[in-house]
Amino acid sequence: MFRRPPGEAAAELQVQLAEIIGEANVTRLIEQLGGTRTFVPKRIGVHHPIAHAIGAKAASLLADRLGGATLDLPKAHYRRQRALETALNMPEGMTIKDVALSFDYTERMIYKMLEKHRADQKAAEDQMSLFDLK
């Protein structure tokens, strides 16, 4: 079982998984099962949720290396980041509603992400540099 500080553990787990099943499959796994504790059986059948997420071949590779382990899969932050980037750089004619529907979020959630992004940018701009002190 993987238990470390959340950010560090998630990054280490993603690197470990990418070495076994590749980055594209890690993204698929996190998109579909992220935010859950997922047991990896020693043999994964084609109907198992892991096999549905990444395919039977990659699931078999995962079982060979990590069979018997329980993974704390991080939430799908990639999806959140892509949704935010799309909302910040919307093509002409696209609306917040379109972004929300495209990324399976509510409009309210997209507005909250934009608000947090703007607040974070403002805080970064307002922070004094150590070199500004005299």
How would you describe what is shown here?
With 134 residues, the protein is mostly helical. The chain has 2 domains: 6-72; 77-127, Arc Repressor Mutant, subunit A (Orthogonal Bundle). The chain has 7 helices and 2 strands. It has helices spanning 6-21, 23-33, 49-54, 56-66, 77-88, 96-103, 107-126; strands spanning 37-39, 70-72. It has a two-stranded antiparallel sheet with strand order 1-2.
The strand line-up of the biggest sheet is 1-2
Number of strands: 2
Distance between the termini: 50 Å
Shape: globular
> Average pLDDT, to the nearest integer?
87
- Portion in strands: under 5%
Number of domains: 2
Structural class: mainly alpha
Helix-strand pattern: HHEHHEHHH
Task: Enumerate the spans where pLDDT stays under 50 for 5 or more consecutive residues.
Answer: 1-5
Number of helices: 7
The major pleated sheet works out as:
2 strands, antiparallel
> What Rg is obtained from the alpha carbons, in whole angstroms?
19 Å
Helicity, as a percent range: 55-70%
Summarize the structure.
The protein is mainly alpha-helical. It has helices spanning 6-21, 23-33, 49-54, 56-66, 77-88, 96-103, 107-126, and strands at residues 37-39, 70-72. It has two domains: 6-72; 77-127, Orthogonal Bundle (Arc Repressor Mutant, subunit A).
